[in-house]
Amino acid sequence: MAIVEMRVPNVGESITEVTLSKWLKADGEYVELDEPICEFESDKATLEFPAEAAGKLIHVAKEDDDLEIGALVAKIDTSVAKADGGETPKEEKPATPEAPAKEAPAQAAEKAQPASGYAAGHPSPAAAKILAENDIKPADVTGTGKGGRITKEDALKAVENKAAAPAKEEKKEAPAEKAAPAPAPAAGSFSRNSTRKKLSRMRRTIAKRLVSAKNSTAMLTTFNEVDLTEVMKMRKKYQERFVEKYGIKLGFMSIFAKACAKVLMEMPEVNAMIDGDDIIYHDYVDISIAISTPNGLVVPPVHNVESLNFAQVEYKIKELAEKARSGTLSLEEMSGGTFTITNGGVFGSLVSTPILNEPQSAILGMHTIQQRPVAVNGEVQIRPMMYLALSYDHRVIDGSSSVTFLVKVKQLLEDPMSLLLDL
Predict the structure, then answer these.
(1) Model pTM?
(2) What residues act catalytically?
(3) Is cis: bond before 94, omega within 30 of 0?
């Protein structure tokens, strides 16, 4: 018997442990070389683990197990060959002259039905997330990948089909639901059940980093408000031409990112970070953009924002957001960042105190835009107003610097032409 041991590979420079989130192949099942057998969840991403040989899979680790790099995950018995209806050792496989003629029809049928292979009905990690987010069962999707595996493209097509499908079936079911209403619970029969579920590795990592930021930094938050009248006028005036030229809309995030980048280049202390007894200053601005995903918040950076134009920033933010929500962000794309922007306003937040994204020293919180009465040249006018919050590490940034930073950003946003002209 030839056994190949499958161990946790080195998945990143700073990653020492992963969680076995899901087995993709059953214990005792035959697997092909390079066929994904399980999924690992690291601090930053979900990764597929491919088989290093063909043969019978023997599980060693269990789902939800935390495994160190190099830990034994599974074994593969390479002496077992794939056969119809089960597994047959290579040395025991019959070699009669009639065998090839009997196997030929089965092989032809298998080739004629690629969707019934080893991975039929099994979605890839990216496809699984898309299907789960849109409440689509894998059984309702036809896989076009290797062995019938459901790919990301299959999942996206299924989402499009679901959105385009008429709601006739729901209407037909409605009368039945009305005819047989659920009985009201009797007094004292209300549910008292609770469910215990292990935190995902990403959620645990987020928790550790947030607690660390709270405990190991001298964090303070300063606030200001900005009148977005001129920004809205600019977007309305140039949006059509912007889309026509670049194929993407001019959003608030690129405008805020460019404003912050300009001020950060003028105030390097806000763009700095502590490393032991040293302070590291950067002559570039990598802005991490907080993106909400089903598994938690991720903050991949947009590099060299100070050197990009608005369209380039918009393209990069869109690309990172799509990858984050489909679970396809690479470790390199998650690394770095000198400053963070988080937009709680998309969820309706009026004001908040964002927590630092270590080792960075500052994070800007954007909030919902509200029409509010403000005094303008001695007159009360209704303006689109947004509260801004800057949380910062007081060990690196003085209070006066934090206030000055917010004021400068406010001035650029209230006069966006000065931002475009680099004044």
Answers:
(1) 0.59
(2) 394, 398
(3) no
